[in-house]
Write a structure and sequence with these properties.
Oligomer: single chain
Number of helices: 5
Distance between the termini: 17 Å
Largest sheet: none
Low-confidence stretches: none
Strand content: under 5%
Mean pLDDT: 88
Shape: globular
Length: 93
């Protein structure tokens, strides 16, 4: 997962070079602090555009690895009423 995230950031750097700290930071699966800081330092429309491109790159890479159908299932929001639909019900890490 970390390699997929890192590659997605690398692809997004072409348009948004200010994301470099997110690429250079040590990556762990749930460590998104550098990405958060880089996005927070930008104006909202720029940060939104970069986030959208990063997610699109992540999705495209995932599709090449596992296919469109499984990617869609993995990235789909949980159905209403399921335990996964309420983040407050998630167990602590």
């Amino acid at each position: 997962m970390a390699a997929l995230y890192r590659r997605s950031v690398h692809l997004t750097l072409a348009r948004y070079p200010w994301l470099a700290p997110a690429y250079e930071a040590p990556t762990q699966v749930a460590d998104l602090a550098a990405l958060h800081a880089a996005l927070e330092a930008q104006d909202a429309p720029v940060a939104e555009a970069a986030s959208a491109e990063l997610l699109a790159n992540f999705r495209a890479l995932l599709i090449t690895l596992i296919g469109d159908t499984l990617t869609a299932r993995l990235l789909a929001p949980p159905p209403p009423g399921s335990p996964d639909a309420d983040p407050a019900k998630e167990p602590p890490p």
